[in-house]
Amino acid sequence: MTLTELSEFMGRGTSYLMMMHIKDNGLKELNYANRTRYDNNVVLELDVSGNKMNNFFSSIEARLVSLEKLLLQGNNLAYVSGKSFYGPPEMVTVLTKRDYLCCMVPAKIKLCQPSMGSDDLSSCENLLSHFSQKLFIWIVGILAVVGNLLVFIQNHSIRKQKNSLVPIFLINSLALSDLLMAFYLIIIIVADLAFSTGEYGLNSEIWLSSPFCLIACFLVNASSLTTVLLMVTICSDRYICLVYPLSPKRMSIKTARIVVVFVWILSLSFAAAPVISSANMPGYLRLYTYNSMCMANNYQIDYYRVWMISYLSIIFIAWVAMTILYMRLFMTIRRSGKNLRRSTATDNTVIAIRLALILISDLISWVPFYYVNLHGLLTSGRVDVIALQFVGIFSLPINSAINPYLYTFTNIDIIKKFLVRQKTFSTKS
């Protein structure tokens, strides 16, 4: 029997039921119809899990005056009112999978899951529950903005060097991509200031359904994808220049512009499509569901699942290609170093240092992100939202904050001066 309203079931000889299990029945609404005249004084447990309930506004439990345990797992519960839980005076347990629902229940509920405790990234009180999280985002955000602006300033001063036109253009494009991540962090910082008023759980949907959260989701996805693809482009250019220095296939400034424009169009379009689909949608139909960091994590909807797998696959393939190119560059530099004059050997040492630092920063940034997504996809078919939020704050932005300093302070001229000073100091000693 499939029920669309609980009122079709209540009143049919149920006055003496103590446990009412109506799970997996396609129930769309938890409501008494006005025609129902019966109160139930003995039901202690009501299980309506695995149904199709999107709303939870009614006060049906007020008619179940002895209700102690309410099971709501497997329902979308996109729209919830905390007043619905004030009815039964004896109710002490509410079990669900809806994030932030436990922030809406009254204090008399002794057990509510999933709880939003102080150990989580977000709590019922604050969007960012710990001062260390707030401080980290401020530091990384400032470093990303300042560092990428330094890249533009440095490259502007050396833009007239003809042999540096392509590298400068590519690195400027990478800096612009990293700035998108900085803007994402700024949006999260402002949202935390606005919503961390002691009642974030109650007002979480205001933030999650706002245009600013949609923009934040777009920025973090576009920045991540663009950054990785541009780094592959930069690595490919460096590989051709160093391994095949006399090759006529070296990238020209015209080719570089075409490649960069293609990368930006591809990344922005790919990132925008699911975000547009998430606008004005309930939580379970959004790309980022109830993730307070607005990061993509929806594997339950087919369209989003395909998008997520495609997104991860593109970045993974790009990262593997970049790693292979870096390793081949290392081997080429090592083999050729012994046969080159000292100045060229120094240049190659600088390049090796830069590549090693970039590879390490990539590992730090992307390995946790892949682990959380793949582990969730392979084990339960869904991503651990809490773990993904921590990765989004403490892992992914590091790449955008460190990259500009790697490209600025590992500049060949700067490191060559440092190496010369070290040799001079050693000689004098």
Automatic annotation (TrEMBL):
Alphabetized GO MF terms: G protein-coupled peptide receptor activity
Compartments, record wording: Membrane
GO terms classed as biological process: adenylate cyclase-activating G protein-coupled receptor signaling pathway; hormone-mediated signaling pathway
GO cellular component, one term: plasma membrane
Entry keywords, A to Z: G-protein coupled receptor, Leucine-rich repeat, Membrane, Receptor, Repeat, Transducer, Transmembrane, Transmembrane helix
All residue ranges annotated as the G-protein coupled receptors family 1 profile domain in the record: 147-407
Membrane-spanning intervals of the chain: 135-153, 165-194, 206-235, 256-276, 308-330, 351-371, 386-407
PANTHER family the record matches: G-PROTEIN COUPLED RECEPTORS FAMILY 1 PROFILE DOMAIN-CONTAINING PROTEIN, GLYCOPROTEIN HORMONE RECEPTOR
Family affiliation: Belongs to the G-protein coupled receptor 1 family.
Protein name: G-protein coupled receptors family 1 profile domain-containing protein
The species this protein was found in: Trichoplax adhaerens (Trichoplax reptans)
Lineage: Eukaryota, Metazoa, Placozoa, Uniplacotomia, Trichoplacea
